[in-house]
Amino acid sequence: MRLMLLTFITATVMSVSVWSDSPEQPLKVLRYGPVNDQIVDGLTPGGLVQTKSGDLITTFVDRGDAAAGSKSYLVRSQDQGKTWGRPFRIIEPASPREGLHTPIVQFPDGTLMLMINRISHVDSRRESVFNIRESRIELQISQDNGTSFQSIGFFTTPPQSLTAAMGALYQLQNGDLIIPAYCTPGSPRKHPGYQYGAGFFRSVDGGKHWGPLEVVFADPPTKDEVKQGFNEGAFVVREDGTLIAYARVDVHQGDEYKMNYLWMCQSRDQGITWTKPVETQIAGIYPSIKKLPSGQFVMLCGLRDSRVCRRTTSLFTSKDGINWKYRGHPYYSRTNGIPHNPATGGGQAMISMGDDTVYVVFYACDPKLPGYHKTYVDGGLLKL
């Protein structure tokens, strides 16, 4: 697969860079198997961490788009993802109109942080995910490998808005920690003193306190372009200090859905200022980016123009964080390796397991399963 991205030349000049034809080893599936196919309609993993004791922990919910009534589940593997236990913690909605999403991240010192996003809907119907929603994100930390969590407060978010954080954390060269996030107003009215759009939350003290949302993507990118509605994001932190941000858009509807490419912009001052956003040629959603011990970057995202299925969890690798090569998709355990339903690819997470190996969690569909979505949480160990 050949892709093109606009490559950064200076803070204001961009040019087109084409993938080289250098050979890449095919993506190798080392092992695979469901993370959880017992919870009906399990979907949308909210991050993946490895505790100081070596356990893997991920989270997921049981209704798409954190619809009203959705619960959140935490599960653990004590053998590097070969097998997974039943949920060791279940977080319930406070009312029939509330939905949940609970991303999880890990600080450099090993502390875990759970972000409990409680989303209020206008009513309890599934269709309410398309109406006005309001959310609050409580922060809970664990210093005992996820056995217990203690609240440390909330992200600062505007009232009457939907704010969402991703299950990923990046450490900048100056030591700051950032978590990708976005905020959309619940009505045309915006509350003064808050920023809206796609960006990140920042901590300058190792995760003890978090500042308000800092917007990365100017929207519209210029006065001559249309508003893009940037949302889900991921970051590259390069050795030279450059930050590269990617964000999802959904402006193209109907048959033009494949034209919703990720957009990109860059910063050379620790995320204080950013270049103008430019469009890439990766039709991705819910991206996550990790740097591997080899020095290369890997991007995991749902790919809207996948040749396998309309929206498949897919991997890309890059040496510079700008030029990406498509590497393939994980093995879908219950459907002979191939995704069954184009609704999957909407939520995934990964962790480096050494060298060029990653363990990924994602959700998949199997028509033999019960439920509304007929989904489950899948996993696999991959060699890039």
What does this structure look like?
- It contains no helices and 28 strands.
- The N terminus is likely disordered.
Instruction: Please estimate the helix content.
Output: under 10%
Strand content range: 35-45%
Give the termini distance in whole angstroms.
16 Å
What's the rounded overall pLDDT mean?
Answer: 92
Anisotropy-based shape: globular
The helix/strand order is EEEEEEEEEEEEEEEEEEEEEEEEEEEE
In DSSP terms, counting alpha (H) and pi (I) runs of 4 or more, how many helices?
A: 0
The SS-based structural class is mainly beta
- Oligomeric description of these chains: single chain
Q: What is the count of β-strands?
A: 28
Q: How is the main sheet built?
A: 5 strands, antiparallel
Descriptive keywords:
384 residues; mainly beta; five-stranded antiparallel beta sheet; disordered N terminus
Topology of helices and strands:
Blueprint: E1 4-8, E2 14-18, E3 28-36, E4 48-50, E5 56-61, E6 72-77, E7 89-91, E8 98-101, E9 104-106, E10 112-120, E11 134-142, E12 150-154, E13 161-165, E14 170-171, E15 177-185, E16 197-203, E17 214-215, E18 233-237, E19 243-247, E20 263-267, E21 278-279, E22 284-291, E23 297-303, E24 312-318, E25 325-328, E26 348-352, E27 357-365, E28 375-383
